[in-house]
Design a protein that fits this description.
The protein has one helix and nine strands, in the order αβββββββββ. The protein has 178 residues and is mostly beta strands. The longest helix is centred in the first third of the chain and has 12 residues.
Length: 178
């Protein structure tokens, strides 16, 4: 017993201490939570991850999100789409991969941009030199107001999906097919 006490004293003189648990605080919840939409398109997995901002009594398109300027297409980090197989995005061939999704909203049509830069915060470091694809899609007005920005993948059949972006009273649909 005496040897155990001496050994403990020896360890303490060397600065050995028993680690103790410290309280860790959880990060504050985001005002714009993460959203995830996913589906299978034939044998291709399609996943979109994005920030979901709320309207919160603000004028969105043409104001908070200006017309004619590159937008991160959501909130926080840039929206990303992952495809495990080659597809046609709108009618343009697109190789498998992960891409940032940017848009240039307009009152009647949006330009949807897929870019090879990943891990960006917003569109601040967006560089068009890395654009992989650009396509234009018409804007639809909705009767119902969507309070939270939503991207969904609406499976039409085994070979066709509609990528739908909705916010406020604006809806944009973009076909993806095998």
């Amino acid at each position: 017993m005496k040897s155990i006490v001496l050994f403990a004293v020896f360890l303490l003189t060397l600065g050995f201490t028993v680690p103790h648990a410290e309280a860790q605080s959880l990060p504050e919840p985001r005002q714009s939570p993460l959203g995830l939409s996913r589906t299978m398109l034939g044998d291709t997995y399609v996943k979109v991850i994005y920030g979901r901002p709320y309207v919160r009594d603000r004028q969105i398109f043409g104001s908070l999100v200006p017309y004619g300027e590159v937008w991160r297409t959501g909130a926080n980090e840039s929206t990303e789409i992952t495809l495990t197989g080659d597809v046609f995005f709108d009618s343009t061939p697109l190789p498998a991969g992960t891409y940032s999704v940017f848009t240039v909203p307009g009152p009647d049509e949006w330009t949807v941009i897929l870019n090879s830069q990943l891990g960006l915060w917003g569109s601040y470091a967006y560089n068009s030199a890395f654009d992989v694809l650009r396509t234009r899609v018409p804007v639809k007005r909705t009767a119902d107001k969507s309070e939270i920005f939503t991207i969904s993948l609406d499976k039409q059949d085994e070979e066709n999906v509609l990528l739908i972006m909705e916010w406020e009273r604006t809806r944009v649909e973009l076909p993806i097919r095998k």
